[in-house]
């Protein structure tokens, strides 16, 4: 069972999320929080595997609560620490970057379908990073903007040079990365391409090594920065 803590300051919204998660046989909602402080406290007391975190809440807010959960006492309370999946209505670039930098393992928007939320929780619990496609695009654009600014300061040139030379990826690796950037899970990619799940994982491990990253989300963002997908 995946133990989930739901943190949202709107009682009706929170109840709706809990009701939705209760329909999934492998989820156990172990606690609910109405503020950032309460989320931090319950992340230690309830020992969830995944904290489903809204961003704008009373008190310290979702970004700071995420930072404290990932880096604080709650990380020692659960083996490998609880993972935070941001679930919010906001797609502001600054908010997205702040949440990821605080240690969030994923960022989904509340307009996402129920099956995407469930899949996101399972992926985060399994140690993967999950980003809504629109969020991944926003992060890639922000990264490209930063690279372009760096190139301008350095005297111009191709902005991609600011993030290093592009490695050589095979056509299959590019194909898989493009599907990752669309928000697809490893099993979904395997079904789409008619290959085994283990084959997808092997290709991604090769991609991680080539791009110098440690997870699928950063691999997709890096590939977009370099113009590989």
From TrEMBL:
InterPro entries per the UniProt record, alphabetical: CheY-like_superfamily (IPR011006), NreC/VraR/RcsB-like_REC (IPR058245), Sig_transdc_resp-reg_C-effctor (IPR016032), Sig_transdc_resp-reg_receiver (IPR001789), Tscrpt_reg_LuxR_C (IPR000792), WalR-like (IPR039420)
One of the GO BP terms on file: regulation of DNA-templated transcription
GO MF terms, alphabetically ordered: DNA binding
Listed Gene3D superfamilies: 3.40.50.2300
UniProt domain Response regulatory: residue ranges: 3-125
Tree of life domain: Bacteria
Protein name, per record: Response regulator transcription factor
Lineage, top ranks: Bacteria, Bacillati, Actinomycetota, Actinomycetes, Micrococcales
